[in-house]
Design goal:
single chain, about 50 residues, mainly beta, Rubrerythrin, domain 2
Length: about 50
C-alpha cells in the first residue's frame, strides 16, 4: 500500500487523529466525512479527512 493513497481521519470535536484509511484519489476528488467512534470523546462523532 503506497503512502500517497493513505488518508487520516480527524475528529471534528476534539481534533484528534483516530483513524487511517486509503482511497483512490483519481476517482474521489473531494474529502470524505464519516461518522466514527472517537475514543477520546467516548461517542460517535463526524470524522473529516485531513492532509
Amino acid at each position: 500500500m503506497s503512502q500517497d493513497s493513505m488518508i487520516k481521519f480527524e475528529c471534528t470535536e476534539c481534533k484528534n487523529v483516530n483513524y487511517h484509511s486509503r482511497k483512490n484519489k483519481k476517482n474521489i476528488k473531494d474529502r470524505l466525512e464519516l461518522m466514527k467512534f472517537c475514543k477520546f470523546c467516548n461517542k460517535h462523532t463526524a470524522h473529516k479527512e485531513t492532509k
